[in-house]
């Protein structure tokens, strides 16, 4: 890795580096767009205007992990068309009225073409809830955006989650089919409604424990992708997710003592057809906060 500090502000990042390093401008642009050149530990566009004191990092290989507001973001894959990221719990995908900093889309926006989705959601093809960790794919080009978005609409994308839930389901494998809509009185929550949209998912028990409290580690495969779907369906089935204070779990002293602060739900597997035609599949390990609860209850994936 090479470090450069800027003392001559006002110039474009790509042009200044081409002159400073005596390299072709085309090569510098490619390095910036591939994520191998960062400014102040952040990705920037080729036309970024340098400021005095800027710290430029030039890497020979793609960075695999970023730290944003104390959260670690792991890059699983990056090419000219897509980026696959392992999102930590607590990170927003895109800005909202109440939270606009430290978002995933903002972090990677400089690597996106400007016409891949709305300005605030550049490259965002699908979402993960704020407190759900795991894999998400971002599209870097309009063609990739359209292609992957269509795969989601046609339910061709493989999405598997792992969750730690209360209790032990009677059946080792099950299929849940409900209708989900916005809660009649709590507008930020969802509920089972006859007039809602169809929600389909299957689950399989991976491990169970009766240590201190009966819990199960489930693998969940969703066919539809509604907001809060897994959380609502599992709660309705009598097995709410540990740490899900919105859908069925009280804030007992026992669970507080374990440090559970959010739903233990992780998007572990993501499979789809790459825009180049290749079928790809990615897999990620849960966040340490999830793994610590697995270890506590001796749950084996």
The total count of helices amounts to 7
Uncertain segments? none
Please indicate the percent range of residues in DSSP E strands (runs of 2 or more). 25-35%
Taken from the alpha-carbon principal axes, the silhouette is elongated
Kindly report how far apart the N and C termini lie: 37 Å
The number of strands is 14
Helix-and-strand structural type: alpha+beta
Helix content: 10-25%
- Helix-strand pattern, N to C? EHHEEEEEHEHEEEEEHHEEH
Q: Give the overall average pLDDT.
A: 88
Main sheet record: 11 strands, mixed
Radius of gyration: 22 Å
Task: Explain the overall architecture.
By secondary structure, the protein is α+β, with helices and mostly antiparallel strands. 19% of the residues lie in helices and 31% in strands. It contains seven helices and 14 strands. It has helices at residues 13-21, 25-33, 104-108, 142-153, 229-236, 253-257, 288-296, and strands at 2-5, 37-39, 55-58, 65-68, 71-78, 82-87, 133-139, 158-166, 173-182, 190-192, 197-209, 215-222, 265-273, 279-283. Strands 4, 5, 6, 7, 8, 9, 10, 11, 12, 13 and 14 form an eleven-stranded mixed sheet that branches. Strand 13 (265-273) and strand 14 (279-283) form a beta hairpin. Helix 1 (13-21) crosses helix 2. It is elongated, with a radius of gyration of 22 Å. The two termini are 37 Å apart.
